[in-house]
Structure formats: C-alpha cells, structure tokens
Amino acid sequence: xxxxxxxxxxxxxxxxxxxxxxxxxxxxxxxxxxxxxxxxxxxxxxxxxxxxxxxxxxxxxxxxxxxxxxxxxxxxxxxxxxxxxxxxxxxxxxxxxxxxxxxxxxxxxxxxxxxxxxxxxxxxxxxxxxxxxxxxxxxxxxxxxxxxxxxxxxxxxxxxxxxxxxxxxxxxxxxxxxxxxxxxxxxxxxxxxxxxxxxxxxxxxxxxxxxxxxxxxxxxxxxxxxxxxxxxxxxxxxxxxxxxxxxxxxxxxxxxxxxxxxxxxxxxxxxxxxxxxxxxxxxxxxxxxxxxxxxxxxxxxxxxxxxxxxxxxxxxxxxxxxxxxxxxxxxxxxxxxxxxxxxxxxxxxxxxxxxxxxxxxxxxxxxxxxxxxxxxxxxxxxxxxxxxxxxxxxxxxxxxxxxxxxxxxxxxxxxxxxxxxxxxxxxxxxxxxxxxxxxxxxxxxxxxxxxxxxxxxxxxxxxxxxxxxxxxxxxxxxxxxxxxxxxxxxxxxxxxxxxxxxxxxxxxxxxxxxxxxxxxxxxxxxxxxxxxxxxxxxxxxxxxxxxxxxxxxxxxxxxxxxxxxxxxxxxxxxxxxxxxxxxxxxxxxxxxxxxxxxxxxxxxxxxxxxxxxxxxxxxxxxxxxxxxxxxxxxxxxxxxxxxxxxxxxxxxxxxxxxxxxxxxxxxxxxxxxxxxxxxxxxxxxxxxxxxxxxxxxxxxxxxxxxxxxxxxxxxxxxxxxxxxxxxxxxxxxxxxxxxxxxxxxxxxxxxxxxxxxxxxxxxxxxxxxxxxxxxxxxxxxxxxxxxxxxxxxxxxxxxxxxxxxxxxxxxxxxxxxxxxxxxxxxxxxxxxxxxxxxxxxxxxxxxxxxxxxxxxxxxxxxxxxxxxxxxxxxxxxxxxxxxxxxxxxxxxxxxxxxxxxxxxxxxxxxxxxxxxxxxxxxxxxxxxxxxxxxxxxxxxxxxxxxxx
Length: 948
Known about the structure:
Blueprint: H1 3-8, E1 35-37, E2 55-60, E3 68-73, H2 79-85, E4 88-91, E5 103-106, E6 132-138, E7 146-147, E8 162-168, H3 183-186, H4 211-221, E9 222-223, E10 227-228, H5 238-251, H6 256-265, H7 268-275, H8 286-298, H9 311-317, H10 345-357, H11 364-371, H12 395-408, H13 412-425, H14 443-456, H15 459-470, H16 490-500, H17 505-509, H18 548-556, E11 568-570, E12 573-574, H19 576-589, H20 593-604, H21 615-619, H22 628-640, H23 653-659, H24 685-697, H25 705-713, H26 734-744, H27 750-765, E13 773-775, E14 778-780, H28 781-791, H29 799-811, E15 822-823, H30 831-841, H31 919-922, H32 931-944
Helix pairs in contact: 4-5, 4-16, 5-6, 5-8, 5-16, 6-8, 8-9, 8-10, 10-12, 12-13, 12-14, 14-15, 14-16, 18-19, 18-30, 19-20, 19-22, 19-30, 22-23, 22-24, 24-26, 26-27, 26-28, 28-29, 28-30
C-alpha cells in the first residue's frame, strides 16, 4: 500500500461501527471497523443469508476512507457470482479482460465509484503485487481467513461461506495483508429462526475466558507434550488426550501440540489399544474411533489412513442393520442405526460429526437414531435409550446432538426443539447445570452448550455463558466441574476452552488445506540435460507417474479448448497465456499433434477471440506496454513447433525482445523497468526467464547478455534459489527457481552451470515426504510439475526425486484426466494446473522443448454460421453467448467435466510466462470461464426454485 493510500485509510480506532442489520456496535479487537450493507436494488437482501444459508462477501474500501461493505448471495455458486449478486461492480484489465478483477465498487459507497481510480491504476496490465485486490476465504465456522488458492470463478461456494476482498498487497503464502476484520465479524447473523416462545438471553456483564492461561494449564498436564497419563498410572488416558487435542485445536488451529498428539495417537500400537481393543481386525470401539477421527481432522491428518486404519470406513462398516430383538442379534447393536459398541449418545453424535467432517455421508439410519432420542422437553439423554425407556435430558448431550443434527441437515424441527430446550435450561447467571436436577452451574455442561447455541445463531445466550465461565476460571487457568468448588478438572477445562475460543467440534475439525510439511534436508547435488524427442508421443519414465494421454485429452477437449483453438479467461475473452501453456503441454507429450497444430495456426495466422482480440493484443508488441515475458512466451512456443519466431503472428518477436531490454531502471514507472537488463514489463522471474530462453534459442546470445546477467543477479546468495517477483520484495520459491534453472542451463559458461547445479540442490531439498512441493496454493501440483522439469536437467542424478514427484502428480489426477490445483484443496480439475502437470511430468525443459508437426494439416476454423470456412479464411472464433444450452459447456469443479468451458484459474498458480509467478500472488483474483452456464443457472433458480 502506498503512502498516499495509507494517509487516506482511517485509523481503525476512529472508524464508526454500523452493523448491517442492527446498527449496533461490533468490537474488533482493540479497534473498530465501519460495516455497511450493499445497496443496489439488484443485490440479494442481507436478510436472505444466515450462518447456514447463502454466502457473504465483504469488501474493504478503507484505503479510500470507506467502510467494509457486505453483500449476500442467497443461492451461492462461485466467488465471482457472489460479488455480482452482492451488489458489487467490477472491472478487469485491458490485458487480461474482465477475468482479472482490477477495480471494485458498490453503490453504498461514493455512488458506486470503483476503486482504485484510473489515476491510481490504469488497469491495462496486471496490477503490481503490492497494490491489488487480494482474495480471502473462510468456510463455515472458520475463525481465520485463508488466502484463496483459487480464483473467484473457480471457487465453488457452500452455504455459510464468507469471502473478503482487501486492497493492498500480500505474499505468496498469504501471510501478510490479511483483512483487519475476522470472518465472524462479517458473517450473517443467526441460523434457522428460533422458536418465538424461547426465553431471552440472561442479562450479565460481559466477560471472556483467558484461553491462553487455560491452554497452558492443559499443556502442563501432558506427558512429553503427547498424552495424558493419570496420576499413578503408566498407560495413557486416551479419551482425556483427545479432549485436550480438541481444546488446543480450538484455541489455535495450527497448534504444534495438536500435531504432536495426533502423531502419538496415530501410531498403530496406540490406535489399536484405544479404538480396536478386540483386535486390529475386529470392529472398533465406535466412540474411540470417532474421537481419533476428529483428532486426525483437527490436526490436518487423514482419518482414512490413521494408525493403520480407515477410521471412517470402519465406522461405516459397523452401523447396526438390526437390533437386539433380531433373530440373530449382532453384539453391540441395541437397535437399527446404532454404531456398534457405542451405547452412549456422545459416541453416536461424535461418529456422525467425524464422518461428515471427513466428507463422508453417514447412514441415514444413524442420523435418524440420534433424532429419535429426543425427550419430551426437547433435550437428549446421555445414553442410547430404546423406545419406552425413561428419557432424562442433559445439557451436554443435548448440545452435542443438536450440533450433529445441524451439521447433517434434514432435522430442522428436532434442532429447533433442542435449541429451545437449551435456552430454557440456562440459568440467569448464564450457566447450565450438569444434570436437570442439579443446582450449581457446571463448567463442563456450560462449555458444551455455549458453542452449540453460538453455531445455531444464539450468540447472546452463548456470550452470557462465556461471561459466566470467565468468572469461574481458577487462578492457575483451569476450571472446576461446578461452581463453588476449587479443584481444577481436565474435562471441565477442555469444554470451557472450546466455548471461550468461540469454536465447536464441527469448526475445529472441518477439513482445511494441509499445512506445508517440513522438507528433507539432505538432497543430492549435480545436474545436466536430457534432450526431448521430436516425433511421436513422448515416452514417460517407467514409474508410477500420471496418465499423460488422458491428461492431453482433457486439455484438448473442445468443452475447454474453445473450438479447439484457445481457452477462455472470461466469456468471449481468450486467455492467451493459458492457451500457450496448453500448447506447451501438448508439444511435450505428442499425444495430440492435430490439436496442437490448430492452436499454433490460430495464434500464428491472426486468429481472434469473440471479443476481436488476437495474441498480440495480449503481448502488446508494438505498444508502450509491450511485455518481454508475453513476447518471450509466444516466441518459445513458435520455436518449439518449428515456426519462425521472427515472423509469428505477423511480428518479429526476437527483434521485439531485443528492443525491450531495459537500459536502466525507470523509477517513475517501476513496473516497466526494475533495472538494467530487465525486459520491459517482465515483473517476474518467470517472465525474465522466458525472454532469455527465447533469445538464446534464436541464437541471440550476445543480445541476451544483459538479461542473463540480470537474471543471475536475482538469485538469493544464501540458497541459490530465485524469488517470484521482480522489483518487489518476495520470497524464494520452487516455481521460479526451476524456471530460471531451465533458462541458464542453455548457457555454456561455468557461472551459469554452477548456478543451475546449486538451484537443483535447493529444489531437491524442498521436496515434501509425499513427493510434492510447496507452492502458492499449498502442496502444489504446479510446483511439483515445474520441479520435475528442473530436476530433469540432471535426470540421472535426481531420478528418485523425479519418480516421487511424478507419483505425487498421479495422485492428484482425476478421472477426467485433469489435475487438482493442490493436495487437500478444492477438489476438481483445473486447466492451468493440468497444463503444467501434463507438460511438466515429461521432464522436458522449455529450453529444449521440440515437437515436429510434419504430417499434420491445417484445419478450417468454424465460421459464425457453424459451417466450415474456406482453408484460406482468417481464423475467427465465435464464442457461444450466455443463452446457449448450459449443458454443452458445463462449469464447476467436479471430477467430471470441471472447468469445461474455461480455464479453471488456480489463483495462485505460477503460469508460465506473462502471468507467471508475478501472478502467483495476484492471479488469485482471476475468474475462470463458465460464467454463462453459472449465470444461466442462477436465472433458472430465480424462476423455478432450483438450488445450487
């Protein structure tokens, strides 16, 4: 953020706070933020969104003295549509089209004027990474923002999701530039409407639990930071250990202590001892299996591969089909729907939550079993009673079952009655008793009840409970079981921490992207070059790599590649950078030379997208915005398929590169030239590297001397790796290091070869245990593929690392042949990730990529009427409008035809070339094509009541 923008931003402490619905004050830490609602008549009213229905977007206009404006999409589809439905106007860039969100405005602030203003940002090229709209997301219940690994159109929304747009800058990992407000500050109020007869919340003074003190008390109870061992015992108390894990995860979603506990419990001997007491091949103790699954989910581990067991699969396999009255009763089954051996309501509810949070649908009978336990007063008992047995409700059991049923859905009436029961049982002090006949308030019961009411929308009741808990906390940080006693108890303290942290079992165990894993530290050391084949499909290494033929077919599918010529970045607007990425991939594999020929002819022969733009409207060649990375990327494609880069698309790309070498920095235009030797508007190491590759491949080594020297100067001297951005501070990363190594490997001088050697050592050292590599989107497919290309510069030396990375890529390939953006991220094939994965998996460097297209023939481009044009006609692509049958070009990110009509923009992917790694931090704003189908679906929902 610039100095002028900082001066205009109001100090947080001086901002007026206005709740969208109640005009009440909302406290944000020590400061205040002004919130308001979107006003355009076309926007979905805020009242249509709740914590469990619709989605919310918040845009912070603070840099221009404005408020945080919220909008609602009652039928959410994508992040892009959420902005539109929420009443926000957007503008893209001239270079990338409307897909790249450069400006945002809303009628509730300054009459809808969009920011940044043209004087601040002309929106011709991609904005600099220190001043752009960064995109942040939070799933239901998440209390911290995550930098989105996907663009707004690629992000598919769930009810209760929250998005935020903040102007400024961030780093690739999204550790800087977070919103000044939390997801909870901008979420919609409430869930389903409460019973009108419910009592009001107790009137008590405000208060908060000292969560750090309580977690310190709990941590001190752990033996070796891993487990709870009762006094006088030598074996672990597994149940208590899981309770501590939940509390610590609620307090800190990235707690190292939680990961240590999960690692300990995930040892086969401990998993077996706790959850499989009858034998590792026998039915599990369902309650213990559910508890371990929740620990795994809270720690980012896979509950389907924990301690040598598929915990979720074992739970599913042991749901009772009949009861004790069956002719041949199954041991541990009281009635249909029970999880075997549970016996208690807690275990049944925990199992349902664990399955749902692991993206596994629990059997309907198991959920119905919970619902049928409801007592006459709306509460739930602690045991799995049968019909006709005495039903005595308890607050803790009621809270847990209500949370499970709310998460499962389909039992609104039951949840409403349970909600009312909890509110009626709350004391005037804000507490709940341990049992219906008890008099003193119980920290244990209150700690369970408060999170559920908060999740259901009864925030004032939950706040009153936390206020009571704050007055019960003991000097050491722990909590006693009931008020009036002074002995701290673990189970009371864990429950109080979860309530005090304003979390719950659903929130803290909801699956999130796995954090980067610490890479190994002893990589091998020396690299060289492997020449690629030029005819026939490339033979991949003999290992467990991805299916490149299926991957090529995914990329060539006309539902993605418009008329077999280009990918769209937004409706009617070609993404030429991504189109060239796809061509690189097809050139590397050789599995579809005909389609590759069509793409190349389209680019070379003056083809235009539906908006009338050709490839040089993207390279900006011949204009003051000519980009060295854009030009270099196009030239490398021409060279790779045997076309003349000095006459490609009617332009001399090699001469343009030479003309675009900066003689010096341009301080008045920092994006144009960062230093001598930088190509104009090459704002990333990717762009600089592509320019170097193009010049060297063209035999212009002397002309490339200054760009090569500048590329070398960008190395981090302590590691030998390269950062992502040029002219702006950024971290070293895998993608850019691999790309720079490919460029320098073309040079014979000792300095260049030594730089390559050192780069490959660093790359190998970044490999994760599963074979992947950390990139902007987490455990990134893009980064792994580029690492394969880089390490293949010495394929013999790094054979083991390459094989491991290719196996990782295979694990991220979907049934349609495409690839996910990252492991643990949003599932579904993404075109950009797939293009890099397919080409990268071959190990062929961009510096040596060659594909002989002899034997292919030019194909006529379809004319606007649908009839083939003459072979001599200029290719013109006519993109179907939004009224076309949506089924012909499906959108979405499922494992079938995900991103069928467009790019599937992985926001943080390091696209090879102009949008390269410079866009690793900014491309998160890009929206994929497929808007037409999405928009049509929204129109249909508005008329026929359909759902997303």
